[in-house]
Amino acid sequence: MKGPLQTLVHYLELPPVWLAVFAALAWGQAQIWPMQVLGLAGDVIGTALVAAGLGVSGFAALQFLLSRTSLIPRETPGKLMTGGLYRFSRNPIYLADAAILVGLILIWDALPSLILVPVFVKLIEWRFIRVEEAFIAERFGAEYEAYRARVRRWI
C-alpha cells in the first residue's frame, strides 16, 4: 500500500512536470543572459511549435480518453494505442513536449538553452519511455512487438 508521500511523488514525477522544470531553466537562462537574436521570427516559429505541441498532446490525450485507458505513465494500460497519431510515433505526447520546449526557447530567445532539448529527450526516454515499453511489451506481447517493428519511437 502506498503512503501519501509515495502517492504524491507518483503524480508529481510526470513528464509535464519535467517539461516545466526544463522550461523554467530556459526561462531563467533568458533572464540572466537575455539575447535579441531571433526577434519576430523566433516568436512566430516558437508560437507555432508550442501550439502544435499542445494540439498533438490534446489529440493524443483525447485518444486515450476515448479508448478508456490510462494516460498516466506507470499505470496499467487497458489498450495498446496504435491508431491516430500513434500510427506515426509511439510517443507523440513526448514528441509534443519536446516541440513545446523548443518553441518556448525560441519565444524567449534563449538560444543557449537549446542544449536542454536533447537532455530533456534523453531524460524522458530513460525515466519514462524505456519503463513504459518494457511494461507494454510484457502486457501486450506479440501485438506490441509487431507495432514496435512498424512504428518508430519518436518519428
TrEMBL record:
Claim: Transmembrane helix is one of the keywords in the record: yes
InterPro entries cross-referenced by the UniProt entry: Phopholipid_MeTrfase (IPR007318)
Chief subcellular location: membrane
Membrane topology: Multi-pass membrane protein
UniProt KW Chloroplast keyword: no
Entry keyword set: Membrane, Transmembrane, Transmembrane helix
Leader sequence residues: none
Record field: transmembrane: 12-32, 44-66, 94-121
Localization in the cell: Endomembrane system
Record protein name field: Protein-S-isoprenylcysteine O-methyltransferase Ste14
Origin species: Rhodovulum iodosum
